[in-house]
């Protein structure tokens, strides 16, 4: 019956919007391996909880990396965990290129900044007209 109880807890976690699996600590990274084998790497902003009996214990990636058993093994590795990953912010930038040569003049955080830069630029640089292209993507951590 313990297996059925664990399965019900995992189902409840998934329905609550968590990613579930086993926590792993490897080569200075922390991740969760899902039941289908997929590995997701976790960052500082992700909310991680490991199940300790019937309770959930919050764990940071730093905790997972530094907490060790007396034998020196990662303390939280292999434990059932549930994670809510932080929202990734969508980033929009404007690329400016020449309509004839297709050379990129620059990338700016807004159309207004791009237009200001083009207005201040050396007019001899341009063979054609400036082309403004909006690029969208997900920001990254450095």
From TrEMBL:
It comes from Brevibacillus invocatus. It comes from the Bacteria. This is Uncharacterized protein.
């Amino acid at each position: 019956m313990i297996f059925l109880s664990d399965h019900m807890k995992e189902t409840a976690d998934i329905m609550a919007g968590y990613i579930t699996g086993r926590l792993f600590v490897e080569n200075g990274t922390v991740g969760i391996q899902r039941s289908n084998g997929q590995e997701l790497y976790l960052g500082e902003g992700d909310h991680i909880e490991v199940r300790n009996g019937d309770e959930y214990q919050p764990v940071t990636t730093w905790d997972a990396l530094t907490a060790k058993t007396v034998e020196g093994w990662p303390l939280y590795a292999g434990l059932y965990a549930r994670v809510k990953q932080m929202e990734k912010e969508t980033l929009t930038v404007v690329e400016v290129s020449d309509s004839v040569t297709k050379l990129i003049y620059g990338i700016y955080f807004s159309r207004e900044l791009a237009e200001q830069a083009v207005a201040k630029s050396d007019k001899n640089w341009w063979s054609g007209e400036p082309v403004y292209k909006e690029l969208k993507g997900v920001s990254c951590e450095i």
